[in-house]
Each structure stands twice: as C-alpha cells, then as structure tokens.
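The instructor's notes for this session suggest beginning with a concrete chain rather than abstract definitions. Hand out the sequence below and ask the class to guess, before any prediction is shown, which regions might be ordered.
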Amino acid sequence: MSRARRRQDGRAGSHRALSRSFGRLALLGAVLVVAGLVGLLHVAFATLTTMILFGWLLLVGGLVGLLHAFQSRQSNFFWLAVVVAALNLAAGVVVIRQPEGTAEALTMFAALLFLAGGVFRLAGGLVVRGPQFGWTLVQGAFGVLLGVLVLADWPHSSLYVIGTFFSLALLFDGLGLIAIGVGGRRVVSLVEQEGHQEGHGGRGGAGPAATTHPD
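After discussion, reveal the predicted structure:
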C-alpha cells in the first residue's frame, strides 16, 4: 500500500471517529432535551429530583473532601478542609432527608436574589444611563417582577420554581449540544468530501502526465 493511500485511509478513519463523537454529542443533547421536557411537564417531581441530586452531590463532595484532607493531613489547612467536608456531609444529609424544606429555603433565597438584583439594576441604570439604558431597565424590572411573584406565592412556589429552572437549563443545554453535534458532523462531512475531491483531482491530473511521450 502506498504512502498516499495509507495517509488517506488514516484521514478517513479520523473523520469517521470525529463524526461518531459529534453524533454521540447530539444524542446526549437529545436525551437532555427529553429530560427537560419531562421536567417541565412534571415540575414538582423535577424539583424533588433536583434536591435529592443536590444532596447526593454534597455527600459525595464531602466524602471526597474528607478523604483528600486526611491524605494531606500534614498541611496547614487540614482542619479547615475537615470542617468544610463535614459541613458538606451535614448539608447533604439534611437536603436528602428534607428535600421539601430545602426547596422552600432555596426558593426564597432565589426570589430575594432576583428582587435585589432587579432593584440594583434599576437603580444603576437610572444613575449611570449608559448605552444599554433601556435594556438594563427591562432586565431590572423583570428581576423585580420575578422576585415579587415567587415571594407572593411562597412556599407553594417552591414546588415548581427550582424544577422549572432546572428543566429549562436541561432543555437549552440539550438544544445547544444538538446544534454542536449536527453542525460538527456537517463540517466533518464537508471536509471529507473536499479531501475526496482533492484526491481524485490529484490522481486525475497525474494520469495524463504519466502517459505522455516525447516526440
């Protein structure tokens, strides 16, 4: 097998592997989109699921942090790492055992953040009056409105606020992965087609030159 042929086969194999990787990325995006749509249809279930996952993440993070702290117990930050790991473990246990109460607390915290952020945006926009003055006012008003609506329906709003945000995040992340995967496969396909055309053109151009004879 010639060197050019081996190079072409290797390039084709790389293109196929890259195309499969983009295909898996698009498939993962489709799974996230489905999960996001299911979460939007069942926001209460999505909220509880999010809280339980959050609790397990805290537990795992606490265990890993505790293990890392004991591995580096000669360092000056040993006790600080132990305290942080213990707090993560305790918070994880509380979240897993009381997901509804944790959702209520996080919902109120999120509503206060929306409200405070909206007020600061409105005040900053009115004081600075920069080039994005109108857009800043719209963002501030939206934040204030969202915070007021969530607080007005609290604690009942804790059943759907976190689940809705989490489901929307899954949905948009999934759409982004699908766009990257489909676009990447198209780019790989175009590059592969150009490579085939160049290969055929090179062989076609070399053929007549090899068969010509001097007079």
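Then share the key points. Confidence is low (pLDDT under 50) at residues 204-215. The CA atoms of residues 13 and 19 lie 10 Å apart.
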